[in-house]
């Protein structure tokens, strides 16, 4: 395979009086540096998921707004922030398509949550409200390229291999939602000391890795975080 083509779903943003499809430069630059060819997939066209799936070799689901709880059978709590139905529908269709086509996926932050929901799991709409003990500050006030809380990596996980066998890694954190019930085909491979799920992977293959933190904001200073993208491109080439 030459440069593997990595689809990244865009988000619809109103800029002035114009709706735009946008992706963050962090993911684009990291994928290019890791040897991939990122392409933007416009939002709001879930019926085209199969066509887009045929164009790409791997799928990166990036960070973004909250996920509408109706996608996992709940009504919204007051703590819910902004959600975009078109984005949810588009990403869920793309994830289902990638899963059935055996395409590797990388999830980042919201991406980890949407992948879990698309494959049959659910999330906490608001961890501070719904977890019955004090949780950490998961929306850090520290600069975004700095880690703020630790995660424990599961022995034998792909993630632990990426992080050279470390068990305890400092990561950044910008979320108020997190994975709750795991999708049947996923396993938990990192969690924070307060029990919040921080990474999931495929149980039976190496197609899916999804982290709750933002390696695309840390990789310039942290080679281990860049290795998350290198591992993704390697998985895509081997799939
Ligand atoms: Mn966190």
Automatic annotation (TrEMBL):
Gene3D superfamilies attached to this UniProt entry: 3.40.50.880
Single GO molecular function: hydrolase activity
InterPro entries: Class_I_gatase-like, Peptidase_C26, PuuD-like
UniProt keyword annotations, A-Z: Hydrolase
PANTHER family to which the protein is assigned, alphabetical: GLUTAMINE AMIDOTRANSFERASE PB2B2.05-RELATED
Protein's recorded name: Gamma-glutamyl-gamma-aminobutyrate hydrolase family protein
Native species: Secundilactobacillus angelensis
Lineage of the organism: Bacteria, Bacillati, Bacillota, Bacilli, Lactobacillales
